Amino acid sequence: MGYSTVIFDLDGTLLDTLEDLTDSVNYALSNMGYPVRSIDEIRIFVGNGIQKLMERAVPQGTLSSDIERALEYFKEYYAKHNQDKTKPYDGVIELMARLKSKGIKIAIVSNKIHSGVIALRDEFFKDVDVAIGDMPELKRKPAPDSCFLALERLGSTVEESVYVGDSDVDLDTARNAGLDCISVLWGFRDKDFLVEKGATVFAETPEDIERQVLL
User: Fold this and answer.
1) Which of 5, 123, 161, 166 is deepest in the core (most CB within 10 A)?
2) Which domains does the chain have, with CATH numbers?
3) How far is CA 176 from each of CA 21, 71, 140, rounded to the nearest angstrom?
């Protein structure tokens, strides 16, 4: 049976945000006098929100007050530069349009700060009605809260919905929400890692997602 609703992760699933995230982290680290990080290091650090990203990026043993200062530098820079190098993965915009044309309801759920999610949705995915980012009143993924809110706003149920993401955080989020999960293979984690974390359904291309959604 196919699905009536798809909840997409954002970073690493719909958008390649890694370079802008790396630049923003390194801006913060440089301002703090800390060593900068490589793009491959940032690839591993992302997935649990910007607080956790900064905790992982700073040197081990950094005081919590200094982590907060670094985080403010990150927010300052990323607010102005979150679309410098960010771009949709090939075929994603066309996928979203095809799903919408076939009556599929779509949401974006991310651990990125909510204002950033909305800005990127408005820039790249204007037809997506529901977009939810990190907000104080919601527990971050892998807690299921943001998925449940998205389903409520869409008028959809867990049983008719599928979650699409690229990471172990997304697998855990889907599991905690009781959702089926499709893991994309073009994002921030490779297939071996995802298999180790329990992934069983994969998409090598956006067309694979469409086929699995419309089965």
Assistant:
1) 166
2) 5-16+87-213 (3.40.50.1000), 18-81 (1.10.150.240)
3) 27, 28, 12
